[in-house]
What we know:
- This protein is mostly helical and about 375 residues long.
- It has helices spanning about 10-20, 20-40, 45-55, 60-85, 90-110, 115-145, 145-165, 200-215, 220-230, 230-235, 240-265, 275-280, 280-290, 295-320, 325-350, 355-365.
- It is about 75% helix and about 0% strand.
- It starts with 10 loop residues before the first helix and ends with a helix.
Amino acid sequence: MAVETQSPGSLGAFGVRVLRAPALHSVVAAVLVGALFLIGTGADPIGAYGSVVSGALGPDGIGATLTTGTSIIGLAVALAIPMRAGLLNLGGDGQLVLGGIAAAATGLYSPLPAPLTVVAALLAGMAAGGAYAALAAVCQNRFGVPLLVSSLLLGYPAMSFASYLARFPLKEEGSSLPQTRRLPDGVELPAFGASTVTVGLVLVAVAAAVYLFADARTAAGYEIRMTGLNPRFAAYAGVDRPKLTLRLMALSGAVAGLVGAIGVLSFPYRFIDGSLTAAGHTWTGLTAALLAAAAPIGTALAALFFAALEVGGLAMERTTEVPRELTQVLQAVVIVFLAARLNLTWRRARKKPTDPQDAKEVSVR
C-alpha cells in the first residue's frame, strides 16, 4: 500500500509553520511570564486565566468580545495595509475620529431615507479618513516629511477639529456632555438579536477578506509585499513608491474612517468627544498588526486575541481581584518577546552561510 506524503502546501505543513511562528512563541512566553507575575502576587494563575477565557468567550462575554473586536480588527487591518509595504501609519486616531464625525454630520443632515443615509454615512466616514491619511502621504512625497512623523502629528488637529464640531455646531442642546445630537430613527446599523454586535462586524470582516485577497491574489499585493521586503529592489523593478504610498495611506485611512463611522452608527448612535479613542483600540490594532507582521489572517486573529484579552481582563478583575492591567502587561510582553526573537533570528541569518562554497571557506578559515 502506498504511503501518502504531505506536500509543502498541505494542512500538516501549515500546522508546522504555525507551531514554528515567532508570534505563537511570543504569546506562549508572555502567558508564562504573566503566570509568574500572578504567582508572585499570591494569585492562582490557572483560575485567573480561566476567568479571562470564560469572561471573553463565555455566553455573557462573547458579545462584548465581538463588539470590541469589531473596532480592534478594523483598525488592525487599516494599519496593516501600509505596514505590509514597510510604511507606518501612526495617525489612526485622527482618521478614526474624522470618519466618526463625518458619519455623524451626514446622518444628522442627510435628506435621504434612513437606509440610504446609513450607506452615505459609511461612505462619508471612509472618504474623510482616506483623504486625511492621504494628506500625510503628500507631506512625505512633496515636502520630505517622514510618514511616521506626518501621520502622527496630523492626528492631533483632526481630533481637535472633531472635538470642536461635537462641542459647538453639532452639540446636543441642553446636554452637559460634549456630544452631538442623536441620529434620527432608523439611521443605525442593524444589530444581531438583542446583542451589541452589529453589521459593522460583517463590514470589518469584508474589509479583512478584501485585504487577504488583494495581498495573495493580485499583482498589486505582490508589489506591496516586495516593497516591504526590499524597497530598493522594488524601485529597481519599476514600483513607483510615492504613488504606492499615497494609495496605501488612502486605503488605510478609509478603513480607519469606516471603523469610526461604525462606532457612531452603533449604540449610543451619536458622536461623543473622546469615546472613539478613549479605549486605545488604535494602538491595540497596531500591536496586532506588528505581532502578525501585517499578514492578513494573522492580523485579524491577533486583533481578536487582544479583544478577548481586553474583555476577559475585566472578568478576571471581577472574579479574582487581579487587576485587568495585567492583560496590558501581557500585550507589551508579547511584543518584547517577538522583537527579541526576530532580532535573534536576523542575527543568526546573517552569520549562517547560505552557499556551500561559503560554508567551505568558513570551515577552512
